Amino acid sequence: MSKTKVISLGGSIIVPDKVDSNFLLAFRAALLEYLERNPDNRLILVCGGGAPAREYQRAYRAVIPEADTDTLDWIGIAATRLNGELLRQLFRELCLEQVITDPTAVSVFPGRILVAAGWKPGFSTDYDAVLLAERFQADTLLNLSNITKVYTTDPKTDPKAKPLDSLSWKEFQKLVGDTWTPGINVPFDPVATEKAARIKLQVIVAGGRNIDNLKKILNQQKFEGTVIGPE
User: Fold this and answer.
1) How many domains does the chain have?
2) Which of 135, 149, 179, 205 is the most buried (most CB within 10 A)?
3) Residue 158: pLDDT above 90?
4) Which residues form the domain of 30?
5) Are 228 and 203 in contact (CB under 8 A)?
């Protein structure tokens, strides 16, 4: 029986300020190695927007100060789709579908890799990743971003912030709240959090640039990161 894993790849990892081709080279090699060693397994890659999303949203706000959240979301979504097309082409021999932009409409999974991007306003691509994990009964949702673990508070502003190895969805919801705003800086967006908690999904939050750590997670070895799951 095939196993499916979902990787929600933060746009800040793909495009921290410009496209990080060195990271993409290492990331591609790691995933191809994993799939070669596990011929029955499949991967779903869901792309965030990164620097282009933030830059274009800032530009819109500069011109239209009363920017509405839906418009800002659509701008961010466009950036996720550009990143998604880049990843699809990098894995074109294994990715046989166009970039998925509506996770509720996809019903088949040809090939070994599926690439998805932003859908519509109201949440981030984390939520799309959760919907795809549910749809294809993924055993793991791996959230790769620019943080290595979830902390008790924001470590950038609180020197007393402590890293967490694991926590329940209820505990995590207290940290991130329940309100979505475009560009919100949280490890996993509140809308996705509510859905993941409801379906009792397990999510691993880890640093996206550590390729060796990614390999350990995929191969179910000891890794650095935070596991969020049902109580």
Assistant:
1) 1
2) 205
3) no
4) 4-229
5) yes
35: tokens are: 């799939």
Q: Round to whole Å and give the CA distance between 17 and 136.
A: 33
Distance CA 214, CA 231 (A): 25
Angle at 23 between CA 164 and CA 226, to 5 degrees: 10
Q: How confident is the model at residue 109 (pLDDT cuts 50, 70, 90)?
A: confident
How many Å apart are CA 112 and CA 89, to the nearest integer?
Answer: 14
HSE value, Cβ hemisphere, 13 Å, CA-based, for 109: 23
Q: How far is Cα of residue 152 from the mean position of the Cα atoms in its chain?
A: 21
- Identify the CATH number of the domain in which residue 62 sits: 3.40.1160.10
Any bridge partners for residue 204, and if so which?
Answer: 142, 227
**Mean pLDDT for all residues in the chain:** 91
As beta bridge partners, residue 168 has 229
pLDDT tens, residue by residue, 49-108: 988 998 999 999 999 999 898 999 999 999 999 999 999 999 999 999 999 999 999 988
**Total H helices, total E strands in the chain:** 8, 9
Dump the DSSP string for 80-127.
Answer: HHHHHHHHHHHTTTTB-SPPBS-TTT-----BSEEEE---SSSS-HHH
Report yes or no on whether pTM surpasses 0.70. Answer: yes
DSSP 168-188: EHHHHHHHH-S---TT---SS
Q: Is the separation of the CB atoms in 35 and 3 below 8 Å? A: no
Report helix, strand or coil for 154: coil
